[in-house]
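Hey, quick one: can you model this chain's 3D structure?
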Amino acid sequence: MGPRLDCAGKPLDLSVPRVMGVLNVTPDSFSDGGRFARLPLALERAREMVAEGAAIIDVGGESTRPGAPPVGVEEELRRVLPVVEALAAELPVPISVDTGTPKVIREAVAVGAGLVNDVRALRVPGALEAAAAAGVPVCLMHMQGEPGTMQASPRYDDVVGEVVRFLEERVAACEAQGIPRSRILLDPGFGFGKTLEHNLRLLHRLDRVAAVGLPVLVGMSRKSMFGALLDAPVHRRLYGGLAAAVVAVMRGARVVRTHDVRATVEALAVVSAVMDAG
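Sure thing. Here's the predicted structure for all 278 residues.
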């Protein structure tokens, strides 16, 4: 049995692998740039993902693709809050907010967000305190550098060991701030300051991240690692992403963050059945 996380009153049951549906409300997202930036379209897409089997919807108002410019706090709030509020009120599943900005954490949770998914692992000054006060689960991600420059020349002596050590340090920082381990997920940060070789090594040894003892979330959907491996543009990366999601779950991941919900839900249902048979 995996844990049941209380996401602002809505449970996220991780006894089987779950799918997190991506809802970008940014005009410059790498994958679906601007398509869901308007509230009615965002709501429609979120309903569709829940119908396809998403167990949680992740709303992001700042693109973190390589080279993305930073977004001001007020602009991020303007993009994110109406969507989070509307989805939290209507949908049966938890709503996650993809942010590391303290004010956005506070205000998004106040209108119903049930999880904070932070690519900066709560390292922005004030973010740890905001997340602790918010009282919802947090997902801590590893990133080398910042989105603007992270893919310039990522270097590691031991990518798996360094990612695990970083995540353990961030867990300790959370615990020191009063966020218990029972409210923490870990994300190794595929594509965030990592070459193709780093990503493959991390995926191959994802069991070492899972061995930390906390639920692991992975986000590889449509990323450039598949572009490099398959010579495929963004809209032709589904099959590679499904293969990687299957490997990730067999190596211990409990949540797969994806743009392609139905296909991923079905792939993971097969993986779960096979793992249960063992």
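One thing worth noting: The chain has one domain: 15-277.
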